[in-house]
Amino acid sequence: MNKVKELPKNERPREKLKKYGVECLNNEELLTILIGSGNKYSDVKSLSHQILSSVENVSDLVNLNYEKLSKVKGLGPSKISIILASIELSKRLKRPELIDIRVDSTKKVFDYFKNLFMEEMQECFYAVYLDASKKVIKIKLLFKGTLDHSLVHPRELFKEAYIISASSIICVHNHPSGNITPSKEDKMLTDNLVRIGHIHGIPIIDHLIIGKNTYYSFFENDDI
After folding, report:
1. pLDDT tens, 125-141?
2. What CATH architecture does domain 106-217 belong to?
3. 138-to-64, 107, 116 alpha-carbon distances in Å
4. How far, CA to CA in Å, does 24 sit from each of 2, 14, 28?
5. In whole angstroms, what is the distance from residue 208 CA to residue 39 CA?
6. pTM for the full model?
7. What DSSP character marks residue 152?
8. Fewer CB within 10 Å: N-end or C-end of the chain?
9. Nearest in space to 126 (alpha carbons), one of 156, 95, 87, 105
10. Distances (CA, A) of 103 to 128, 175, 201, 206
């Protein structure tokens, strides 16, 4: 494998990008530009090749995390941060912005989260905090892992609501299996949060379960 500096100048990734456009670069060349330089262990092209070799398809790059990338010898904190930041930015570009948007339909919330959960392999629990006019103030990830009603603590959910003066909350979590049928734990968690919300005067107005391009709404099914 030739090092970047050994390639003819017009075949180097940055020069190709400038001359032909970024869409003409292959995956390894794009990663090479992101990483920027090699080190005493590997040149930059070798690092890019190692990263791509660690996944089956380029789409699997979205599942990389700090721990996985740190196993690539020669990738330090700076380069790992650049790669992960680029992946996260690409995810955000795929979904509409929700902050300051008035939530007048369940579909708006679903449209935001369906792309966020597209490649997610673990269950994630989010809170969407709304003001009195149902505009989104903040979206916060409260839990990631295997969802259990005891792991999403009401204290964390409502503490944030008080800090930002939220008037109501929409809870959202995903089922990576694609099955959106609420589990026993989902129902117990929702009932518990709704009850506590009434006590605090900050109601839980919906809880969405996101599957594969579909969702279950506790509100729409009269379960709240």
Report:
1. 999 999 999 999 999 99
2. 3-Layer(aba) Sandwich (3.40)
3. 26, 18, 16
4. 19, 11, 12
5. 47
6. 0.66
7. S
8. N
9. 156
10. 10, 22, 19, 11
